[in-house]
Amino acid sequence: MRYLAQMATLVSLLGAGCVGPRPTMSFHEALYTGNAKETRANLEWPDSKFISISGPVDKTGRTPLHVAAEFGHAELAQYLIQHGASVNDFGHWSCNCTPLQIATHKGHGDLAALLKSHGAKDYPMRQPSYLVPNR
Asked: Please, what's the b/e burial string for 82-114 (b: 16 or more CB within 10 A of its CB; e: otherwise)?
């Protein structure tokens, strides 16, 4: 009987929009440390309407995918791409570079290959991502 009461409570909470435990770290902290689980929790939490997968996350105008590319967070990059992050975004303000250019510049070949496999383009007069083998 107790099990049924707990199940009814769970169904009620899910119906009210509760999706799981509240994230334990901020979106920015999770993003910069490459914690894919916490980044997902932040983006999937009902209060996430103020968090943008394509908006700037710092004063240079980098998007979450730019940050993942800089630090080599491939799992996080894959998640962001699957949820609509643009692989060809030049960022905002002073960033003016794509995630592919950042990944290449930082030496994250696997991440650069992932971005290319999702349609990231090489732009003339930019970082030499041609050094990354096509996969």
From this structure: eeebbbebbbbeebebbbbbbbbbeebbebbbb
CATH number for position 98: 1.25.40.20
- Which residues constitute the domain of residue 98? 24-118
Tell me what the mean pLDDT of segment 11-16 comes to. 52
pLDDT at 9 over 60: no
C-alpha dihedral, 57 to 59 to 65 to 68, nearest 10°: -100
Q: Phi and psi (nearest 5°) for 76?
A: -65, -40
Could you tell me where the DSSP H helices lie in 45-98?
64-71, 74-82
Two tokens at 117? 């496999």
**pLDDT at residue 82 tops 80:** yes
pLDDT given at position 57: 81
Residue 29 lies in a domain: yes
Inter-residue contact 61 to 91 (CB < 8 Å)? yes
**Helical pair 109-117 and 74-82, crossing angle rounded to 10 deg:** 10
Task: Please check whether residue 1 lies inside any domain of the structure.
Answer: no
The count of structural domains within the chain is 1
